[in-house]
Amino acid sequence: MINLETLKTYSRAVAFGAVAVTAIAFAGPAKAAPVQLFPFFQPLPPIAAPQPYQPYQATPYRAAPSEEQDAVETPARFRRQTVSYATREAPGTIIIDTPNTYLYLVLGNGQAMRYGIGVGRDGFTWSGTQSVTKKAEWPDWTPPPEMIARQPYLPRHMAGGPGNPLGARAMYLGGTIYRIHGTNAPDTIGKHVSSGCIRLTNDDVADLYSRVNVGTKVIVLPMTERRAELGAATR
């Protein structure tokens, strides 16, 4: 027969063991890592704080060197000056002395303002009488078809500015492709280098531009044998 006291002791041991197992069962999951229901979703990064508005800063445009940026010493005889000049043309008339590379603006009373110029190279000189039909400040440049045919690498259009071959000012001559204009290459003054246009330094063309109006008569003398200078500087 089983002793009653032994049975009671056994029952208490079993009850204690059950309580211990239950405590361990509840304590174990509390220490385990939480179960991820959707492990394939990654948490989103934190939202950055809003930044103050900064306007777009474009890279500054760098033009080609201009006359002011790359100064060239103009020979004394090509500097703008008042000279004695005998002519029957009315004051305000422009006379282009092609062979001597001078432009004269008739002042009257036997005087003229003389400017050094660059003219057409061999095969591109011309002569005749025209008039100023248009004036433009910092003009755009659209090379004529004739020039594009000879130099296909030229741009089809160039906006006005210091790097533009027409320089600071332009005066258009009649219905021709020729102009009196400035230049970003002042070292070409006094030379036969253009495709027929008459070029002055930017400073000189701005001065001439301020003195003439649309309708001004322009006489271009032919390229003949080089002759003595007609204009003598006044003192």
UniProtKB/TrEMBL annotation:
<comment type="similarity">
    <text>Belongs to the YkuD family.</text>
</comment>
<keyword id="KW-0961">Cell wall biogenesis/degradation</keyword>
<comment type="pathway">
    <text>Cell wall biogenesis; peptidoglycan biosynthesis.</text>
</comment>
<dbReference type="InterPro" id="IPR038063">
    <property type="entry name" value="Transpep_catalytic_dom"/>
</dbReference>
<feature type="active site" description="Nucleophile">
    <location>
        <position position="197"/>
    </location>
</feature>
<keyword id="KW-0732">Signal</keyword>
<dbReference type="InterPro" id="IPR005490">
    <property type="entry name" value="LD_TPept_cat_dom"/>
</dbReference>
<keyword id="KW-0378">Hydrolase</keyword>
<keyword id="KW-0133">Cell shape</keyword>
<dbReference type="InterPro" id="IPR050979">
    <property type="entry name" value="LD-transpeptidase"/>
</dbReference>
<protein>
    <recommendedName>
        <fullName>L,D-TPase catalytic domain-containing protein</fullName>
    </recommendedName>
</protein>
<dbReference type="Pfam" id="PF03734">
    <property type="entry name" value="YkuD"/>
</dbReference>
<feature type="signal peptide">
    <location>
        <begin position="1"/>
        <end position="32"/>
    </location>
</feature>
<keyword id="KW-0573">Peptidoglycan synthesis</keyword>
<keyword id="KW-0808">Transferase</keyword>
<feature type="active site" description="Proton donor/acceptor">
    <location>
        <position position="181"/>
    </location>
</feature>
<feature type="domain" description="L,D-TPase catalytic">
    <location>
        <begin position="92"/>
        <end position="221"/>
    </location>
</feature>
<keyword id="KW-0328">Glycosyltransferase</keyword>
